[in-house]
Structures are given as C-alpha cells and as structure tokens.
Amino acid sequence: MNSDIGEKIKKLRTQKNLTLSDLSEKTNLSTGYLSQLERGLTSVAIDTLDNIARALGVTMYYFLDKPKSKKNFILRSFEREVLEIENNRIIQFQLTSDMENNDMLPRIFEILPSSNNEEITPYPHIGEEFIYVLEGVLTLLINDEKYELFPGDSAHYKSTISHNWANNANKIVKILTVHTPNLLKK
Hints:
Blueprint: H1 2-15, H2 20-27, H3 31-38, H4 46-55, E1 82-86, E2 90-94, E3 105-111, E4 128-135, E5 138-142, E6 145-149, E7 154-158, E8 163-166, E9 173-180
Antiparallel strand pairs: 1-2, 2-3, 3-9, 4-7, 4-9, 5-6, 5-8
Pfam families: Cupin_2, HTH_3
InterPro entries: Cro/C1-type_HTH, Cupin_2, Lambda_DNA-bd_dom_sf, RmlC-like_jellyroll, RmlC_Cupin_sf, TransReg_Diox_bact_type
Domain HTH cro/C1-type: 9-63
C-alpha cells in the first residue's frame, strides 16, 4: 500500500513539475522523508497524507483505493475496508460486500474526540437513518434538541428533519449506521 501511495505522489508531483524540494517547502516535510515515501520505504500517517494531498491540489482520497465491490453477500470482518476518512477525525468503514447495488448503506463510523465542543450544524436530506452506538458517547442533534446517546442506545429517524451528530466527549465514539437511500448505488 505504501509503495502505491508513494508512486501516486511521485507521479502527481512530477506532472506538476515540482521537485522534492518544492514539495518539502509546501508541506514542511523533509526531502529525505518524501523521497523514502515515494519509494515505498516508509509509511505515512493520515494527517501527513492529507497535508501532501493539499500541497498537490488533490484530496487524500486520490491516493487511496476505493473499496472493491464484490457480488458475495457476506463480508468477513477481516475484509472490512476504510470507505472514507473525513477531516482526519471521522473514519467510515464499509459493512457490505456490494455497496453499489443495495438499497441500504450500512457503515461503521469511528469518530475521534474533538479538542473542544464541536459546533453541530444540522441539515436535512432525503432518506432515513438508523444509528446504534457501539462505544463512547454520541451527541445527536435533531430539530435543535441535543441528545446524548450511550453504548447500546439507538436512534431511527427520517433524514428529512434537520439533524447531525458529533463526538463532544474525550474518548472515541463508534457507531453503526444504516442509511437509505444508498447514495453510492449505481
């Protein structure tokens, strides 16, 4: 995986006519580290990858492979892949082997703690949502009312009402979600 990311970084850097020194200046990373990364000799942290991506004018998802859609209806725990990482704080994992052909979109979210209470901006969208708290304390905002959900708690609501959720605690929050419609469906 590191060599794939490194190859993509080097290819994009050279396409943009940037030297390792140029990229080093834009990212505040050493040229030695960047060189090792491009050759697949070292690993990269998510926040560092995001820093490099911004310097190269792309998102970090440019460097990550999208999970492969399979036709099998069983997804083993060891097959679970990261679907997306948002703002270096929210990690989404796929929970289905065929995300693009099903009506529901089941996922697990791991939400890292914020340094202070997050401003939660509620928003409506089409569909329906189910949330089940696996670990931590989730702050759920529905129609300007805040609810604290603890492990074992769940919420099920129409997505057309104003809603959002966040981690305002100091420990990781893990939630299982199921959304309809599946926006990844072909």
